[in-house]
Amino acid sequence: MKNICLLFLAALGTSLFLSSCSQAPDAEKDPNADAAYKRSHRTEGYREAQRSNVNY
Predict the structure, then answer these.
(1) Single pTM value for the model
(2) pLDDT by residue (tens digit) across 2-29?
(3) Are 22 and 16 in contact (CB under 8 A)?
(4) How far apart, in whole angstroms, are the C-alpha atoms of residue 18 and residue 12?
(5) Distance from C-alpha of 20 to C-alpha of 16, rounded to nearest angstrom
(6) CA distances from 15 to 3, 20, 24 (A)
(7) Radius of gyration of the chain (CA)
(8) Which residue has better confidence, 42 or 35?
């Protein structure tokens, strides 16, 4: 049971590491993919500031 837990944690760590190292697509080859990549990697604070229904 302990080995299964360790294997699962190792797999999870590897997948997180590999997903965080993804490269942005080339904007000249595919502008839509580049825009989607940039939207998905914005910080939450930036998204909140860009909303039109922000209360003052």
Answers:
(1) 0.37
(2) 888 888 888 888 877 766 666 777 778 8
(3) no
(4) 10
(5) 6
(6) 18, 9, 18
(7) 18
(8) 35
